[in-house]
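Researcher: Last one for today. Full complex below.
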Amino acid sequence: MTEIKEKLSQKQDKKSKTLTGAQILIQSLLKEGVNQVFGYPGGAVLNIYDELYKCDEMKHFLVRHEQAAVHAAEGFARTTGKPGVAIVTSGPGACNTVTGIANAYYDGYPIIVFTGQVASHLIGNDAFQESDVVGITSSCCKHNYLVNSVEDLPRIIKEAFHIATTGKPGPVVIDLPKDILVAKTEFNYPKKVNITGYNPNCIGHPLQISKALDAIYKAEKPVFMIGGGIIASESYKDFFDLAKTLNIPVVNTLMGIGAFPASDELALGLVGMHGTYPSNMTVANCDLLVAIGCRFSDRVTGNLAKFCKDAAVIHVDIDPCSISKNVKVDIPIVGDAKRVIQDLLKTINPTDLAEKQDKRQQWLAQISEWKKAVVKVAPESDKIAPQVAIEAVYNLTKAKDPIITTEVGQHQMWTALMYKFEQPRRIVTSGGLGTMGFGFPSAVGAQVANPDKLVINIAGDGSIQMNIQELATCVQYNLPVKVFVMNNGYLGMVRQWQEKLFNKNYSETEITGPDYVKLAEAYGATGIRVTKEEEIEPAVKKAMEIDGPVFVDFIVDSFEAVFPWVLAGEPINNVLLGKDD
Amino acid sequence: MRHTLSVLVQNESGVLTKISGLFSGRGFNIESLTVAPTQEDKISRLTIVTNGDEKVIEQISKQLNRLINVIKVLDVTAGQSIDRELILIKIAALKPDDRSEILRIAEIFDADIVDVSSKTYTLEVMGDEIKIKSLIELLRPMGIKEMVRSGKVAILREMQTLSV
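Model: Here's the assembly. Have a good evening.
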C-alpha cells in the first residue's frame, strides 16, 4: 500500500515539477546562469551536495577553508562582472565566511553566499554547529535572508541576485535551515522581482548634470577622481570619451585601477596615502574635483579637514550614503555612473568647452612638472629590491594581459604603482577591508572564471601564509595560478610604520615562513626560488610555461619602504618620496 | 538637535536587528524607539528619536533607506506632526501630604490612577514630550519608585500620510 502511495506521489511530483529545497537551489542557480560555485560541504548542507553530485551542469570547486570560498567567489565576480556564488555549511562554516562577505561589501562586488543552518525547530537551541548567521552577517552584507519556508526560496534567490548586482553591488547571504532543503514545493522561478523598499536611482537629475557641466566649463584646474563605480557600471569606454573630450586629467583610487588606461597622457595614477606625486598634488591644488564612483575613504583623502578645501566638489555615486559622508559635496549626483557619464557627454557644448582652454594648458603644464618627481629606491642590502622585482614581473608578463591579484601590504601598493593596467577587471585587490589572505583565493576564483588567462597572485610572505592552503585547491583542479611571493621576512607595511613612527621597534613584524619551494612541491605544485636580479626573467618565463600552479619565492630586501607615502592624518600633498624626506 | 524619524519597514524577522545594528555600528544614538504594525499587514512603523547635527541626521536617514527592508524614512521633527508618549509611573506615597499632592498632580495632568497601595500610587499619563517631562519633575520630590515610558509615536498632520 505504502509503495503504491509513494509511486503515486512520485508521479505527481513529476507532473507538477515538485522539487526539494536543495533541488530548487540548484535549479535557481542554473536559471541565473551560474554553473560554477565554490564551497565546502558539511552536515547541514548534505542535501545540497547530494544534488550537486547528481547535477552535471553545475561545477563545484572544493576550497580548503570557507573564507577562501567567498574570496574565490569575489575573484570570479571581479574579473567577469557576474555574481560569484559560495556554498558553506552551518556554524563554523558560516562563521568562516564573515571576512569574505565583509570584503565584498566594502569593495562593492556581487556575491551570493548560501549558508547551511540547523533545522528550523532547532534554531535558538544552541544546536550542534548552529550560529546566528543573519545576526552575525547583518552589518557586513548588503542584505541577508533566513529562509522560513521552501515556498519562499525561489523568490528569495531571485531577489538575492537582483540586490547583489544592482545599485552599489554587494554580497547577499541566504541562510538555509536543513528542513527547508528537504521540504518540497512546486518550482516556478519568478521572472520579475518586486521589492518595495529597494529601487536604486540610476538616472542622475538633469539639473544637477547641467550644473556639473557649468562648473566643469568654468574650472581652470579640474581633475577627475574615479573609483570602482566606473568598473561596476561598465562605463570605462564612456568615461574615456568624457575625459578625452574635456581634456581633464584623471586620478584613480585603488578600486579604480584599470578604469582608465594607465598609459594615457591624462592618467596620473593612484591617489591617496600611497598615491603618485602628480595625483596627490593635482587633487590638492585643483579648483574642481569631479569624483565618480568612489567614496572618499580616509586612505584617499588623508587629513579630511584639509582635503580639497578650496575646490568645488562634484560627486557622482549610485549610493546616496557616500555623498557628503566624508567630503562635503557641492554638486551631488545620485545615479549610475554609466548613465550619468552618457548624459554628461550628450549635454556637452563644444563652444563653452573652449572658453577656459588657455588656463587649462597652464594647469596641464604644471601637472607635467609634478610628473617629473622621482621615488628613490635605496636597497639596504645586496638583495633584490621588491619594487624592482614587481616591475620586472610587469615587464615580463604585460604582453599576456594577465589578471593580477594581490594580498595586502607593501607588495600590493607596489603592484598598484608599478603595474600599468590598461584594462578594467585585471586587478583583484582588497581595498576597503584590507584583507591579508585575499589574493590567493581570489586568484583561484579568477582562474576558474578565466581558464585561458594568465592569473598571477603577487603576495607578501606574511599575507600568503594566511590562505596558503588553497594551493591544494589549485593542484586538485589544475588551476595554473602563478604566485609570486615577495619574501622579505617581515610584515613589511607594519614594519615600515614602525620604522618611521615607532623608533624602529620592530614589534612582532619579523616573520618566518616555510621553504616555499619545498612547500609547493609538497602540495604537488612547482616551486622556484629567485635570489638575484638576473634570475627573475628565467624564473618568470619558466613559471608561465608550466601548465599548473607555481610558487616563485623572490628573496627581497627586508627594509625597503613604499613611497610615495603620506603619513596618516597628513594632508595628501605632504608626500614623502624616500626615507630621507 | 533631537529628531523624530518615522520609518516604514517590511515586517520580517531580523529587521529590528538590522536597524539597531546600524545605529550601534555607525555610532548613532537612539533615545527611544517604538515599533508596531501599521494598518497594512506586512508593514510595521518605527518611531525613532535620535540626536545629531544636520549631517548626522542626513546620514541616519540615508543609511536607513539603504537597508533593503526599509520602505520609507521621514523626519517628522519640523512641527508637521503630532507626537505622543505614554508613561506609567509608580510614586512613593507614604505621607498623607504626598498622597494628596500626587492626586492633585494627577488631576492637573489628566492622569489615570491605575494602581494604588498603602505605600504607592501608579499613574498612567499620555502626552507630548513637555507634558511628560514636567510631570516627572513634579513627582520626583516624592520619590519615583519605577517608571516605564513607551517612547514617542508620531503622526503627520492633516492630509499628509506616510504610506507605501
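The radius of gyration of chain B is 19 Å. Residues 138 and 158 of chain B are 33 Å apart (CA to CA).
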